[in-house]
Amino acid sequence: MIINRKGLHQKLSNDVSSLQPNSSAASYIANELLPPIDTQEVWASGVTYFRSKEARMDESKKSGADVFYDKVYDAERPEIFFKSTPYRVLGHGDKIRIRKDSTWNVPEPELTLFISSEATIEGYTIGDDVSSRSIEGENPLYLPQAKSYDGSAAMGPCIYIPAQPISPDTGIHLTISRGGKEVFNGSATLSQMKRSLTELTSWLTRESSFKQGVFLMTGTCLVPGDGFTLQQGDVVSIAIDKIGVLTNSVA
To answer: Which residues fall within 8 angstroms of residue 51, CB to CB, at 6 or more apart?
Structure first.
């Protein structure tokens, strides 16, 4: 598998140096772009930003579970959970879904790592960890149902493979439109994340091996207010500096 290798940037730089320009590449990217995943699993990290901690605590106060989110933010061990099988991952332009049995649904824009089978961070993409806040807030044991269902994961539009690790000043931007009008707009930077990317990678790969590599969503701090929930027809656009824009409508 071409992306599952240590030193991926150098390998690809060598390969593309001999390639000729392709006049149909722009059309292919615009019309036939698939999610940048093959057989890899997708995992996710939670409560890696202070804003996420606040949101999780607010939504779980009624159940008395808010204390768990407070504790995990300061704990040595991060929250890491399984998000999606590859066939459930949607790409740029595809339609994400919200659960029919949920009353409070949000997108979660996240820098997503591609980690090789040797546990090295080799690339970056954009992830949308679509979530049911009403289900997770009711009971933290419902997390798999709140996070993992058909249409709950989107990634793209590409994998960014730089020569050096991505900068902490990298911006993440979320825009949500409804009926052609913007209903939410927010931005943040990776520097607001409490845990480092290498720390999260270390915990994910500590007792688990990934023969074809793995994708890891790294958490969000762009959380719409408590009065907001996604609706059918909404358009979610997530931009991360130097990677691109991932846009999906809600089915």
So the answer is: 188, 192, 220, 221, 222, 223
Pairing of strands 235-240, 244-250: antiparallel
| pTM for this entry | 0.93
> What's the token pair of residue 32?
């036939």
**Taking the CB of residue 111, how many other CB atoms lie within 10 A of it?**
23
Closest-CA residue to 195 (of 221, 171, 176): 221
Cβ–Cβ under 8 Å, residues 106 and 229? yes
Q: What is the pLDDT of residue 173?
A: 98
CA distance 193 to 195: 6
CATH of 39-250, one of 3.90.850.10, 3.40.190.10, 3.30.420.10, 3.50.50.60: 3.90.850.10
The backbone torsions φ and ψ at residue 128, rounded to the nearest 5 degrees and listed phi first, read -120, 110
Distance CA 13, CA 49 (A): 34
Residues 181-217 pLDDT 10s:
999 999 999 999 999 999 999 999 999 999 999 999 9
| 170, 190 Cβ separation under 8 angstroms | yes
Q: Which two tokens stand for residue 235?
A: 């358009």
Domain residue extents for the chain = 39-250
